[in-house]
Design a protein that fits this description.
Blueprint lengths: L5 H46 L3 H8 L6 H18 L11 H21 L2 H33 L4 H55 L9
């Protein structure tokens, strides 16, 4: 305390919480746009994909880089099929049944999409869980400083105590204000990521059935 002024510690705490707040709302904005965009892309691609007359048209449709996560799942599957047909060396990565190998290729792309959807959630959870404690740290330091000033003044009347302690409590309030939207947003985005994974897994199963049984597939609707 004698080396670093208490006011500097409290101010540093408030600046840290301000940075947390800016980062939290930046992530919330980014993830909201990402979820809205990927949801729209998935819905549009799903309808267009199952309305195509044949696999060749579906493959061209999935080649669009702006078509979204489901399109990338389909593109990964079509690329694997193309590589398998062109392979004449019997490489180890093509050892196994077509169904197992295709499912593996789809799962790899699915993990990439899930990782992209969950990107940013870890810092959001970290800020949501630590912000109250950062604010509490600033409050404790502020109260200790206020009590020290009161002891120096030699009086503990309400007008002397209330001001400094009230200012110290602001850090805790800001910490809670930062944590609440971060935690709520984390839970919401995590649920959306799980729902997207379920949708991609369902599409992957339908795609697997379609390309391995093109004559009997019913469109995966």
């Amino acid at each position: 305390m004698s080396q670093i002024p208490a006011t500097a510690i409290v101010d540093g705490t408030l600046y840290t919480l301000t940075a947390f707040s800016v980062a939290t709302w930046t992530i919330i904005l980014f993830k909201s746009v990402q979820i809205w965009r990927s949801g729209r892309q998935n819905r549009n691609f799903h309808i267009s994909f199952w309305d195509t007359p044949d696999l060749e048209t579906a493959e061209r449709l999935s080649a669009d880089p702006e078509a979204g996560p489901k399109a990338r799942i389909a593109r990964a599957g079509f690329l694997w099929l193309k590589e398998l047909r062109s392979d004449t060396t019997g490489r180890l990565k093509y050892r196994g049944t077509p169904e197992e190998l295709l499912e593996r290729a789809l799962q790899r792309q699915l993990r990439k999409e899930q990782h992209a959807m969950e990107r940013g959630l870890t810092p959001l959870a970290s800020m949501g869980s630590t912000a109250p404690f950062v604010g509490l740290f600033g409050t404790v330091v502020g109260i200790m400083h206020a009590l020290h000033e009161v002891s120096k003044a030699g009086t503990a009347t309400l007008d002397v105590v209330a001001g400094p302690i009230g200012e110290a409590l602001i850090a805790t309030a800001i910490g809670i204000a930062v944590a609440v939207p971060a935690v709520l947003a984390y839970n919401f985005f995590l649920r959306r990521a799980k729902l997207q994974r379920l949708g991609l897994e369902s599409f992957g199963r339908d795609f697997l059935h379609l390309v391995l049984n093109p004559d009997t597939a019913n469109g995966g609707r």
